[in-house]
Amino acid sequence: MQYMVNKYLQYDIYNLDLLTYAGDLTKHKEIESRDNYYFVKADIADREAIVSLFEKEKFDYVVHFAAESHVDRSILDPSTFVRTNVLGTQVLLDAAKQIGVSKFVHVSTDEVYGELNFDPTTFFTEETPIKPNSPYSASKASSDLLVRAYHETFGLPINITRCSNNYGPYHFPEKLIPLTISRVLNNQKVPVYGDGRNIRDWLHVIDHCAAIDLVLHEGLNGEVYNIGGHNERTNLEVVKTIIATLGKSEDLIEFVKDRLGHDKRYAIDPTKLEALGWKPNFKFETGIAQTIQWYLDNEEWWQRINSGEYKTYFEQQYGA
Ligand SMILES: Cc1cn([C@H]2C[C@H](O)[C@@H](COP(=O)(O)OP(=O)(O)O[C@H]3O[C@H](C)C(=O)[C@H](O)[C@H]3O)O2)c(=O)[nH]c1=O
Prior knowledge:
CATH class of the domain at 3-171 and 202-233 and 263-282: Alpha Beta
Helix content: 40-55%
Order of helices and strands: EEEEEHEHHEHEEHEEHEEHEHHHH
Bound molecules: dTDP-4-keto-6-deoxyglucose
Number of strands: 14
CATH topology of the domain at 3-171 and 202-233 and 263-282: Rossmann fold
């Protein structure tokens, strides 16, 4: 069996490498192969390249991770999000349909549901109506609908997974947790949007990978599965935890202008996935401590990113 996983490799789970990095895929054309898994670093909107790859390799399974994933970047420039997330997904779906895959797993996000209020008894379920608020989440919701349409119209076997906020090693320093860790370690101010009371439900990337692996093999054809870590925290709690763990002062916190259209709260009800046999193994306290340690041990990795391709973005977003 041939598996196609279209993003950079990162974690080994049952020999399946999964990844969190959604960098600029358009820069890479090469394809890596390991065992029966292919990690495609091609421009996913490049129809010719993708279709000929699918025809050549005859993939049985496709796990579609690739996305432009950062909400702030989608506010700065929505167009790349439409190209990669919407057009790119449609190209992959066409290629999958053409060769007739056994399963196409589309990795999506809880942001397609919009936002919850602060009532702690409310959660996103798979039945929650789609109501995306940012250009990023609108592009992901659009791709979800295309995946659904290819299932309904052409009978393509699919699953859609919708995860909450990921964290863990190799998380790019544009996102809240790695941004905070790297800035605190550099004694830079940590920008907290608005009043810091927005809530996210943190999911360790390894728990996420295990869930996707389960859905790939056991998910019922055509079904959506929500994946959440039961780890709700306010942004301020997250930032304070990191600062305390690193033994630094809360004076580093700087409240800055709120994100446009900033969703108040995300929280997942993962009951449907749990019925397949999944549960998260990471409590936030353990996961964040291990993640901070990983950034301490791998400073060269994130310092290089911060001083390289991300420098211009950080200057534009934070003015420093
Ligand atoms: C970068 C940054 C973020 N924030 C706030 C904004 C959010 O309330 C929270 C987390 O932000 P972040 O950009 O890390 O993640 P989300 O916007 O929640 O979205 C993330 O989780 C979902 C599920 C995906 O699907 C996205 O792909 C993923 O990026 O921290 C700040 O206060 N300051 C900052 O500098």
